[in-house]
Design goal:
The protein has 5 helices and no strands. It has 103 residues and is an all-alpha fold. The chain has a domain of 67 residues.
C-alpha cells in the first residue's frame, strides 16, 4: 500500500525509488546513469566481501546463488577503480576458500 493507503502501482514505486535515491544523494554510475536498486544490492555484496564475509554468507543474505554473487561482485569491483584490485583479490581468495570447503 502507498503512503495514501492505495494499492502500489509499478509507476508509483518507480517514482518513489527515484525520489528516495535523490534524497539520499546516491551518486550516478560512471556512465552517468542513475543507480538502481539492483546496483545497491551489488554494492552491498561488494562491501560485505570487504568485511570478510564468505561468498556463501553474502549469497544467503542477499538471496542469490554463490556463482551469481561472484559474477555481481566481479562486475561491481570493476566499476569502482579505487577498490577494484583489493576487492578482486578478496574475491579470488573467497572463491578459493569456497572451493576448498567443497572437498
Amino acid at each position: 500500500m502507498s503512503e495514501l493507503g492505495r494499492p502500489l502501482s509499478a509507476r508509483w514505486a518507480s517514482n518513489q525509488i527515484t525520489k528516495w535515491r535523490r534524497e539520499a544523494q546516491i551518486p550516478s554510475s560512471i556512465d552517468g546513469r542513475e543507480n538502481t536498486l539492483f546496483d545497491t544490492r551489488g554494492t552491498a555484496a561488494t562491501r560485505l566481501l570487504n568485511t570478510d564475509l564468505s561468498l556463501r554468507q553474502i549469497a544467503v543474505l542477499i538471496g542469490w546463488f554463490v556463482p551469481y554473487a561472484v559474477q555481481v561482485i566481479e562486475h561491481y569491483a570493476q566499476l569502482s577503480s579505487n577498490e577494484s584490485d583489493a576487492v578482486l583479490r578478496k574475491l579470488n581468495r573467497a572463491k578459493s576458500l569456497a572451493q576448498d570447503t567443497k572437498m
